[in-house]
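Handout, section 4.2: multi-component inputs.
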Amino acid sequence: MPKNITILAIESSCDDTSAAVLRGDRILSNVIASQKVHEQYGGVVPELASRAHQQNIVPVVDTALKQAGIDRRELDAVAFTRGPGLLGSLMVGVSFAKSFAQALGIPLVEVNHLQAHVLSHFIKENDESVVPQFPFVCLLVSGGHTQILLLRSHFEMEVLGETIDDAAGEAIDKAAKIMDLGYPGGPVIDKLAREGNPQAFHFATPHIQGNDYSFSGIKTSFLYFLRDRLAEEPDFIGQHKADLCASIQETIVDFLLKKLENAVKESGARQVAIAGGVSANSRLREGLQKMGEKHHWQVFIPKMQFCTDNAAMVGIAGYFKYLKGDYADISLPPYAN
Ligand code: KG4
Ligand code: ZN
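Output:
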């Protein structure tokens, strides 16, 4: 067994600046600075995101080390998100990680953001933490991605299904934008949906072959439905906000779960996980729990701090790569989408 190595991890792919410290597969700290500046624009403004990352990165890393009770000289490696993401945002984390590792004379490990979301299930918080066994299926569902993956090992992932257009989180964010609920829309829709009737309105889901998804049609049908209703009742959104949120959430979550259920059955796996920002959705979490009980599958639902972008997931992915001796070259550029 290698000695319990200590890794500093950096995540800056979109609008969260995050740093974490892991010792082996155990999390010591996970600090996330979310950028509020984008709310007023209804979406992430890349230029503002990279500027905020520059302001946040040093204090966030400092706090992560302090909370972990780790001196920088105790670090064995620096892991960072290389991509995909916004180039200007990635650049901040990548440059920081490189100079930090170089100054300390320790290896660098590059991490793919999507792999990190999936591998977040292997982060251990204590001796009781239970992690998935291979093979297992993971629905990775975020603002940029929607994929059903079969994991055979930490780095062997087969795509069983994926969206052919928008990501589920993107559809949720657009629905929220249409209702003028602000950005990001997922948490607001989730909250308002709790007061609403999920069967109040019906939005058609497309018939897509196999285990693939499509979300652009749902968004359009939501838009046209509202346009027609607003013509008759100008305050339709204000009067039916909770029901609209509950109904659109139900449509999207049902679609996600139906394809997932089918993919898991076909794969023969007995363990199912969800990951990515949309896995914070309470309806999706409940639905997966029920599905697991129905089929006697063991389900893995991430803690909230590991759903949306965070550096702990980068740290765990970096840890497994470090164990393989898979280090990154100092000249490595970030990659965007
Ligand atoms: O993984 P993430 O933080 O960033 C990407 O890599 O995309 O995911 C962000 C997405 C956004 O679309 C956001 O609206 C969605 O996750 N989200 C949620 C919830 N919390 C965040 N969607 C539904 N329900 C939630 N509670
Ligand atoms: Zn993400």
